[in-house]
Structures are given as C-alpha cells and as structure tokens.
Amino acid sequence: MTHATPEQIGQLTLVFERFTRRFKVAEAAAAAANSLNALDVQALLFINDNPDCGLGDVARNLHVALTTMSSTADRLVRREMITRRRPEENRRSVALALTSKGVKAVEGYMAGYYDACQAMLDPLDQTDRAEFVRLTQKIADYEY
Prior knowledge:
Layout: H1 6-34, H2 38-49, H3 55-62, H4 66-78, E1 82-85, E2 95-98, H5 100-121, H6 126-141
Antiparallel strand pairs: 1-2
C-alpha cells in the first residue's frame, strides 16, 4: 500500500475540519438543550450502548480517571439522567443505566448527529453515497 501525498493529506485535513465543525455544532446544540458538557454526552452514549455497565467501564472507554467519571456520574444522577444500582450478583459493584430523561438526551444528540450525516450525504448521488459510506466504514474498521 502506498502512502498518501502531502497534497492529499492537506486536502483531507481541510475537509475533516469542516466535518468536525458540523458535528461539534450538532453536539453542542444537543448538549446545550440539556446543559451537558462533552464528557456527560459521551458517558450517556456509552451507557446507552452498554446498559448496566460499571463506572470503571465508562472511565476506561472514555480514557478518563475514575474520579473524573465518578463526578460525571454524580452530576448525571442529580440531573436524573442515569441511575446507579447494586447488582444482586455482586453487591460491591455499581451498575449504571439511563433514565427516560437520559434516553431523551441521547435521542436528541443522535438526531443532531443524523442531521449532520445527512448534510454530508445530500450532495452525493446514490452511487457516490454508497461508495462514501463503504470507504468511511473501511477507514473506521482499520486497525492502526
């Protein structure tokens, strides 16, 4: 496999900067609607995808200290977006789950993300869309 040229890298850098801006705007709008910071949003997304996960699971996935994640969880519990419960099989651990308010926040975030993705695909015809999605998936699946 050959390496990309400096010109290609430069072009892609500019394109991704624009994409990133769109996604940040979508994320900020969803976060602002619920007065959430970026870590809160990412924690909610992880818990949504991994119901009954532990605090350590979320911290490891988001690459933050356990104390930071504990503060985030406290904040989300106070906002009634997640719950903590002690599983019967291991009373020393704590399982996290979304509340209905947390589910709504995730849905709002995902709707903004969906809109940003639609804006990226709209200028393309069906063939280009399929190819773009295929190539993007290939990049996402690549192990560095």
